[in-house]
Design brief:
It comes from Sphingomonas hankookensis. The chain has 334 residues and is mainly α. Helix content is 45%, strand content 1%. α3 packs antiparallel against α4, α6 packs antiparallel against α7 and α6 packs parallel to α8. The termini are far apart. The N terminus is likely disordered.
Length: 334
């Protein structure tokens, strides 16, 4: 009974993202990878209001020999703080307890965050499950690192016109100049906020597992990577299904994906959820992979380009206004 509207929507979608199936490996990258208006304003996309960038320099590989397992896990911990706070506020209206935020480096506060009044009970349940997982990730990494664990840095998950979410949404063309993007306003905005983080998180842990030497830590990183992949697949699936009735949601994921691509280098790997093919050959795009069905990775610098909302080499910005704590702190120069 649902096939007709699904086909009508999906067959109407353009296929401009098909080329993003092409795989590119990042050899000689740094230890790991994960998830500003002025930054994203340098992006490029037809109709997206981005400025065409100049020639993109070849990224300088970051040396991995000086990085330890603790460096890698602490980089991941910064990102887990961000995700855990976002989901915790969205699902419950409260953030993490202060006992889960202390450590080395400067401890920062969370700006913004509030509970979403969900109208879809399934989305509410998904939000609570993901929140519990992300909080557990924070606590696990803090326990594994012990006294070496970094403190939570300052985090911006607010919804003012100048907040990180609003800057990202504006540069992706989702809102206009001076407008604010409220990720807590409804189910759909919440899902788009989750989409920003989850895809980046998967690429982070995909890159991390190759640079962790301790077997126990390696198994844990692989396990967290699997959990993040489940989260990302769930978020993409719900957006895809809701996009059947509201095609603008599919368009929004494409715009966010294009913005992420413009930040993390010259390659065009990131993918929204637009379907591929047509007619009886139409296939969903729930899992963003290469032609071999393999998820791609990001270097730490590329991850920080996205969460800092800046395509240049910076040590702070976007969702981390004062930067992250630990050894890995600088975004790449793209």
């Amino acid at each position: 009974m649902q096939n007709d509207p699904i086909l009508q929507v999906l067959e109407a979608c353009d296929q401009r993202r098909n080329a993003r199936r092409e795989f590119m490996r990042y050899a000689g990258g740094a230890a790991i990878a994960t998830a500003g208006a002025s930054v994203l304003a340098a992006c490029s996309d037809s109709g997206g209001g981005f400025i065409t960038p100049g020639p993109t320099p070849t990224p300088t590989p970051t040396a991995t020999t000086a990085l330890t397992d603790a460096d890698v896990l602490n980089f991941a911990l910064n990102l887990e703080y961000l995700e855990a706070q976002f989901y915790s506020f969205a699902a419950t209206g409260a953030g993490l307890p202060n006992s889960s935020l202390s450590g080395t480096g400067t401890q920062g506060a969370v700006s913004g965050g509030r509970q979403v009044t969900f109208t879809d009970p399934l989305v509410a349940r998904y939000a609570r499950e993901i929140a519990a997982d992300e909080i557990a990730h924070v606590n696990f990494l803090r326990t594994a690192l012990g006294s070496a664990a970094v403190a939570q840095p300052a985090i911006d998950i607010g919804v003012t016109a100048t907040s990180a979410f609003s800057n990202a949404a504006r540069a992706a063309g989702l809102i206009g100049a001076g407008a604010a993007f409220d990720v807590y306003a409804n189910d759909e905005n919440f899902l788009l906020g989750a989409f920003i983080f989850e895809d980046v998180g998967v690429t982070a842990y995909k890159g991390a597992v190759g640079f962790v030497s301790n077997k126990t830590f390696l198994e844990a990183a692989a396990g967290i990577h699997a959990a993040e992949a489940y989260h990302a697949g769930l978020v993409r699936t719900v957006l895809y299904r809701k996009g059947v009735a509201t095609p603008s949601l599919i368009d929004a994921t494409e715009a966010i994906s294009t913005a992420r691509d413009s930040l993390d280098g010259s390659s065009d790997l990131d993918q929204g959820i637009r379907a591929t093919g047509s007619g009886n050959a139409t296939a969903s795009n729930i899992v963003p992979t290469d032609g071999s069905g393999i998820a791609f990775s990001r270097t730490p610098g590329q991850v920080l380009n996205i969460v800092y909302l800046d395509r240049t080499a910076k040590t702070a910005g976007g969702f981390f206004p004062n930067g992250v704590n630990g050894t890995i702190r600088s975004s790449a120069a793209n």
